[in-house]
């Protein structure tokens, strides 16, 4: 690992590490010859002696070096030194799009479209230079930005089959959606319940809304929980905005366990018998991977109502029930829980149907597509 003050090629002075990926680390550095800041991508040591990885790394640099576009970072230099392989790139001040969205919250339609157009222009420029480009969409109803950029991509990688008809079918490959690393190994239920201080001899319902718009869903669940005190326990993950309120409302309900955040979601899923959840693509990918029956309540203000499209897919496969928030009542939630907890065959069937929707090794599937594509597809 490079540290502050080290030099590469007697020209680039390392200032500090600013990012990392699966194959490489990225550093901010000072180009002492031209007096400017640069970003240097360095192949990780565990890959530096593998000819296959080194070749891919150099090919990446050569491909990107042929591009000149305002929406694509410029390549300045490439080289090797004492077994270390590096690419010197334009350094762009600012924050990542992910960080920007997390700080600002939901983007306006106008701003989201503006960003999508810039991304699309960069992808199109790469595509026209013969560089393979890809887009991945996890939703049953793909986003407008992905539908637009897919027209100039080599392949469209899909989380689920149901999204295929929104794109050129010949370009589509269903790869599934990667789950976070902690989810890859399913945890033991008893150990998970010990970790989360949940009872071993009771049914447990995991409730997870979303950062935005979970307040009403939490309120409905609390009232349903009052009806289900003898039936099951509840683990409600509220987020920071609703934690204090939910904690106060459930103070007299010992079978309701309230936490603000959960850093061990693999344990939360393993501990649960049933999940009440929004139906974003990441949540559903996790439900399928963990094989958990669910009551899905789509976030009513999601773009293009895409969460409802996701929920309908799981409901159609028998893995979940879908209920709209504007008509949902505490009685509906309680009735669903009583049904699945008194019919063990139904619960087992829903769990099995959820597991059938799982596409394990999505990361490997995506990598295989990229590595084995011979040439770029034509523009739609």
**CATH level 4 superfamily of the largest domain:** Glycogen Phosphorylase B
Hey, roughly how much beta strand do the residues contain? Answer: 15-25%
Stretches where pLDDT falls below 50 for ≥5 residues? Answer: none
Q: Separation of termini?
A: 43 Å
Rg, Cα atoms, Å: 24 Å
Helix content: 25-40%
**CATH architectural category of the largest domain:** 3-Layer(aba) Sandwich
Return the average pLDDT rounded to an integer: 91
CATH class designation of the largest domain: Alpha Beta
- Largest beta-sheet characterization: 6 strands, antiparallel
Helical segment count: 13
Instruction: Give the beta-strand count.
Output: 15
Question: Can you tell me the CATH topology of the largest domain?
Answer: Rossmann fold
Task: Characterize the overall form.
Answer: elongated
Features:
3 domains, single chain, Rossmann fold, 13 helices, alpha/beta
What is the compact description of this entry?
This protein is α/β, with parallel strands linked by helices. The protein has helices at residues 51-65, 97-104, 109-128, 144-149, 189-195, 215-227, 243-249, 265-271, 281-290, 306-316, 330-342, 344-356, 362-371, and strands at residues 7-8, 12-20, 24-31, 36-43, 75-81, 84-90, 134-137, 155-158, 172-174, 203-208, 232-237, 256-259, 274-277, 293-296, 320-322.
Task: Report on the architecture of this protein.
The protein has 380 residues and is an alpha/beta fold. The protein contains 13 helices and 15 strands. α5 (189-195) crosses α8 (265-271) and α9 packs across α12 (344-356). The longest helix is centred in the N-terminal third of the chain and has 20 residues, at 109-128. It starts with 6 loop residues before the first strand and ends in a 9-residue tail after the last helix.
């Amino acid at each position: 690992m490079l540290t502050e003050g080290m030099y590469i090629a007697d020209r680039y002075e390392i200032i500090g590490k600013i990012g990392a990926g699966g194959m490489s680390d990225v550093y901010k550095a000072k180009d002492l010859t031209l007096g400017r800041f640069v970003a240097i991508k360095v192949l990780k040591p565990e890959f530096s002696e593998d000819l296959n990885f080194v070749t891919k790394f150099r090919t990446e640099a050569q491909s990107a070096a042929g591009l000149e576009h305002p929406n694509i970072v410029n390549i300045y230099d490439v080289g090797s030194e004492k077994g270390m392989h590096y690419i010197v790139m334009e350094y762009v001040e600012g924050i990542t799009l992910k960080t920007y969205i997390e700080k600002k919250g939901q983007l306006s339609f106008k701003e989201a479209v503006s960003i999508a157009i810039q991304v699309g222009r960069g992808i199109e420029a790469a595509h026209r230079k013969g560089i393979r480009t890809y887009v991945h969409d996890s939703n049953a109803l793909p986003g407008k930005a992905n539908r637009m950029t897919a027209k100039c991509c080599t392949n469209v990688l899909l989380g689920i089959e149901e999204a295929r008809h929104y794109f050129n079918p010949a370009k589509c490959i269903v790869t599934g959606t990667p789950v976070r690393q902690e989810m890859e190994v399913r945890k033991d239920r008893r150990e998970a319940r010990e970790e989360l201080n949940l009872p071993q001899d009771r049914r447990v319902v995991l409730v997870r809304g979303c950062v935005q718009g979970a307040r009403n869903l939490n309120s409905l669940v609390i009232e349903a929980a009052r009806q289900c005190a003898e039936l099951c326990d509840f683990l409600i993950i509220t987020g920071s905005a609703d934690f204090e309120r939910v904690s106060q409302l459930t103070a007299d309900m010992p079978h309701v366990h309230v936490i603000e955040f959960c850093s061990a979601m693999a344990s939360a899923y393993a501990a649960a018998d049933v999940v009440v959840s929004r139906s974003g693509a990441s949540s559903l990918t996790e439900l399928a991977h963990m094989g958990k029956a669910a009551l899905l309540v789509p976030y009513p203000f999601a773009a293009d109502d895409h969460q409802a499209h996701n929920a309908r897919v799981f409901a159609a496969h028998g893995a979940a029930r879908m209920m709209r928030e504007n008509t949902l009542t505490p009685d509906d939630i309680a009735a669903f829980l009583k049904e699945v907890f008194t019919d063990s065959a139904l619960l087992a069937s829903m769990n099995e149907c959820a597991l059938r929707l799982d596409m394990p090794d999505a990361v490997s599937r995506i990598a295989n597509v990229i590595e084995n594509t011979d040439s770029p597809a034509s523009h739609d």
